[in-house]
Amino acid sequence: MSFTAPAPSHLAYVPFVSVENMMALVHAIGIDVFLRELAEYLEADFRRWPEFDKTPRIAAHSAEGVIELMPTSDSSLYGFKYVNGHPKNMKEGLQTVTAFGMLADVSSGYPTLLSEMTILTALRTAATSAMAARYLAPANSRTMAIIGNGAQSEFQAIAFREMVGIHALRLYDLDRAASEKCARNLAGMGFDMTICDSTEAAVENADIITTVTADKQCATILSDNMVGAGIHINAVGGDCPGKTELHRDILLRSSIFAEYPPQTRIEGEIQQLSPDHPVTELWEVIAGKAQGRTGKGQITLFDSVGFAIEDFSALRYVRDRLEETGLYEKLDMVADPDDPRDLFGMLQRSKMAAAS
């Protein structure tokens, strides 16, 4: 007598987007379209920001880096991201940041999507930066300095080209090879690029300054005398206690915008300021409840640390593009016995089936 374990039901399978399929998805859609459409999802979720559960990310810090969980949910979907930040990894031939994420159905708790998020995080970070700049940067901005030319730099450049109109890039990194890599990767994409020998040279005549360095320490990437009136600063490379890029005096001269201040005050540039220093939440600007750029000489600062709702938006976007592209695998991930009370019986029947 032989036994056959029942085949998994459709409820057992969860769509999984691997790194290979994520890359194929970006190419199938086109990175420019991908970034623009992703920004639309981000903006839609920022407009309904009060609907989400929000908490600062749950972090495990070590001398080498940080591992974080970033959860959020609305009335129908739950999402989280696992992400690390280990700057020393680069010297060992490893990624500084790796990530994966999941969506689940709030009503049942069943997962509905599992995805790589190393590439997707780079895309959503760039899309968020450019989305914020549309509200905060000087009108008709055309030149951007990028300080730190590692893994995020090209994504930022393309997002700002597509959504803000940036066509001139001034690149600087302590390691000139990183700037050369960035310029090489962006060749033929319509940028006028200059590799600079110092931060001071890079920020000269820039409308927007993006800082995206990775060292896990307090550093003065931008000093006060480098920042003139009317600049927009896109401060991306913070993200942990004790890690800053901007001199405190720049903050005191700036109108500061943040995603979720309770998290940004722990990890962002504003950790240098008093807990009651005024900060405007970006969602309020996007929803028309607060002003963004109000004057020609105003210095605006987007103190970007990344927040779970942005990952939620990115996962929603990927989920919605899977059916038409088919760029995913089915993982047999959820135990789904015919009788929900008989999980043990399901286990035993699989043993008998294997032995027959």
UniProtKB/TrEMBL annotation:
InterPro entries: NAD(P)-bd_dom_sf, ODC_Mu_crystall, ODC_N
Enzyme nomenclature, EC number: 4.3.1.12
Presence of the UniProt keyword Ribosomal protein in the record: no
Gene3D superfamilies: NAD(P)-binding Rossmann-like Domain (3.40.50.720), ornithine cyclodeaminase, domain 1 (3.30.1780.10)
Top-level division of the source organism's lineage: Bacteria
Gene Ontology terms for molecular function: ornithine cyclodeaminase activity
Record's keyword terms, sorted: Lyase
NCBIfam families membership: PRK07589.1
Listed name of the protein: Ornithine cyclodeaminase
Lineage summary: Bacteria, Pseudomonadati, Pseudomonadota, Alphaproteobacteria, Acetobacterales
